[in-house]
Amino acid sequence: MPTFSKGLLMVMLFAQSIHQADEFRKCLDKYVRQRGNEEIMKVYNTLSKKKEDFVPIEEGKVRMYVCGPTVYNLIHIGNARPMIVFDTVRRYMEHKGYEVNFVSNFTDVDDKIIKKANEEGTDASTISERYIEECKKDMEGLHVKPATTHPQATREIDGMIEMIQTLIDKGHAYAAPDGTVYFKTRSFPGYGKLSHKNLDDLRSGERSLLVSGEEQKEDPLDFVLWKPKKEGEPFWESPWCEGRPGWHIECSVMSKKYLGEEIDIHAGGEDLIFPHHENEIAQSEAANGKPFAKYWMHNGFLNIDNKKMSKSLGNFFTVRDISEKYDLQVLRFFMLSAHYRSPLNFSAELMEAAKNGLERIVTCVSNLSFLIKNAGDGAMSDEERAKVKEAAEFADKFDEAMDDDFNTADAISAIFELVKFANTCAAEGSSRAFLQALKEEIVALTDICGLEVEKKQELLDEEIEALIQERQEARKTKNFARADEIRDTLLGRGIVLEDTREGVKWKKA
Ligand code: AMP
Ligand code: ZN
């Protein structure tokens, strides 16, 4: 429920006294309605180390950037964690009514990609294009929605050169004699604000930062924006030398191009806090003269035997490995059963538990579907109506958990409670409307989690014809919403409608 500040109440009383009460009440009603279904979300911000109220820069819109994978191999399930959790954040925000512009990049030029290309005797773009396609297949299996834009570093080189030049012009970067361009870390006063490190701490580690070949740096803390080409590497022309960009600059540039200079959320795994995200802040804020991202979100590690899963340690399973044993939505369910900021240990037992948990929901929905098919058309009884209200409380619980920094673990518990409730109160004598309401509630909540719990059954020809007939009638009575809904339902079952002069024809897609 919304709460009113003292100030708002004073204004209300004042308005009443000047005969504008009716007008004012109308505005107030609108305000109550808006606040009623728009409880403020709390988001943990790595920048402030606190949960903060989520207030977007532009009302009703969210601009969000998630650092994507370096594409030189099949993605492992550690890489899948940020994909799944931030896709769920996106879905929940959309459920709250926000329009989310979601950008996630592919890093398609990097030492590891070049090494793999050389091993295979091919070029870097062949490797990156292959693994972008493979990554997209894995995302589809995990029900990760495609981003609004998936930019690729190698297609944004001009923008990177432009930003690097701006940084040089503003005194935040310099070119060394061999053409390497460095960011002058000490020129940016806010350096360290995300990782909560100060320059003095970093200075004590200076020795280790000074690796051979980097003696030309003015300061050991400076980092690379552009580097000269080496034999057998892809390169681009630039004002400083033929070469390629450093890793950090790509995200600053792509975020600016596709989302603007100031964005709401920037996200990734917690290993990216330092130096990647710290460097992105320095580059973007120094170049644009504006704050970069309002909220910084980071997922915890997916571990194996309490060690971070990573390609370099060799302790990983690819998403493809898992898909041989499980439906990939079991992996999604497993990931969401923990809070996104907590470390999560991968084990065969936990995957089995996730499989069973998901199965419980699927079975409940399929029982409801069976009962619905055979239920009578009678109206909902008073008792059933009261139960539907009770069921809605589980949805409130779900929202409450998600509003609290996307606590998917508690949100899933709320789904289980709803399933238990549905299992106890749905019976053969229940009305169809009641059963449908229970089912819709479960499907709506699982949908926000990106889980498909309703088994798609093949429609019989008569069922298709009946739905087409209903759609025609809905159109006649100008009920276009229902007509569109029927078309979408059919499309979801692989049935495409074609409006022809002779009438509506359908075919299987
Ligand atoms: P990379 O391809 O290494 O740049 O990683 C792509 C994304 O996956 C980044 O957001 C990383 O932080 C994240 N990531 C990599 N390994 C793990 C892991 N074991 N657990 C969670 N996130 C990870
Ligand atoms: Zn990035």
For the secondary structure, the number of strands is 15
Radius of gyration: 27 Å
Measured between the Cα atoms of the first and last residue, the distance is 46 Å
**CATH class assignment of the largest domain:** Alpha Beta
Summary tags:
509 residues; Rossmann fold; 4-stranded parallel beta sheet; 4-stranded antiparallel beta sheet; 18 helices; disordered N terminus; binds adenosine monophosphate; binds zinc ion
What does this structure look like?
This protein has 509 residues and is of the alpha/beta class. The protein folds into 3 domains: 4-36 and 347-448; 52-320, 3-Layer(aba) Sandwich (Rossmann fold); 462-508. It is 50% helix and 13% strand. The chain has helices spanning 6-17, 21-36, 77-95, 111-120, 124-141, 157-169, 199-204, 206-209, 247-259, 273-288, 319-323, 328-336, 348-374, 382-403, 408-425, 432-448, 461-476, 480-492, and strands at residues 42-45, 50-53, 61-66, 99-104, 173-175, 181-183, 223-228, 243-245, 263-269, 293-299, 302-304, 307-308, 344-345, 495-500, 503-508. The strands form 5 sheets. A 4-stranded parallel beta sheet has the order 4-3-9-10, with helices on both faces. It has a 4-stranded antiparallel beta sheet with strand order 5-6-7-8. α1 (6-17) packs antiparallel against α2. The model is unreliable at 1-37 (pLDDT under 50).
